[in-house]
Design a protein that fits this description.
Strand order of the largest sheet: 2-1-3-4-6-5-7-8
Number of helices: 13
CATH topology: Rossmann fold
Strand content: 15-25%
CATH class: Alpha Beta
Largest sheet: 8 strands, mixed
Distance between the termini: 22 Å
Structural class: alpha/beta
CATH superfamily: Thiamin diphosphate (ThDP)-binding fold, Pyr/PP domains
Shape: globular
Number of strands: 8
Radius of gyration: 19 Å
Amino acid sequence: MSLNLRELSERTEGLAPGHRACAGCGFPVVVRLLFAVARRPLVVVNATGCMQVVTAIYPYSAWPVPYLHNAFENAAATASGVEAAVKALRRRGQLQEEPKVVAIGGDGATYDIGLQSLSGALERGHDFLYVCYNNEAYMNTGVQRSSATPQGARTTTTPVGRVQRGKLQPRKDLTEIVVAHGIPYAAQASISHWADLGRKLQRAVDVRGSSFVNVLTPCQPGWDYPPEKTVEVARLAVESRYWPLYEVEGGKYRITYVPRQPVPVQAFLETQGRFRHLVADGAAVADVQRWVDAHWERLQAKARSGL
């Protein structure tokens, strides 16, 4: 499945201009690409978080489609109800088109607060797409750590000082947790690789049943880098294999991008202020590199074995 950049650029439906996202924010890339590649109507269910706050402050909305704002914890549950309502209306002949229900949440609403409702919706097999725009912390409420925050990262609740040097625990592997539910399609993507992201979003919209896309979406104030460097930072995450791009369809793993010349993870870490204390510590950087290498080797093994 290939995407044509010129054709996508001519599809103008998307977030209305004037939304309040920070300069350098990555999530508008995800939303615009979702609208560009979707080949059916969409209904968006949005968990509380950065995306909701900057696009839907009453009485204004930047969304061109039916849109529901939810609490942190219940986006997937609401999406389940909307999907059931769509089916009921279709059975009664009251709805001619069949929209795709898309739930969107940040890592706080997805990895942590909303994990129970997400797991329940996936287990029940609802026909909906869940998109996680993953900026690796609770950015909307002041850059507190989440379970998506990587080990060593500085946040307001994992400070750097004499007692503690950033977050103590490695990040949760939510994509693998989702895969364990046996859903038809799950993928990991990045805003830096638009064609890969677009193809995965298109496949996730088209598939019947539950689908999930976990998108690395750098946060300029939370990660502490110049706002014009968002795509570059995201690209280094992929090129260093810190954030592998892969998909799991029908239980089969496929790595969708293999860096030709992987860069050391330090090249990714040194772009951001949240890792400034690590970059000066060779042993800490080596620990992160070992974690990255081990994770990549496990993913390659799954792809080779046909799991």
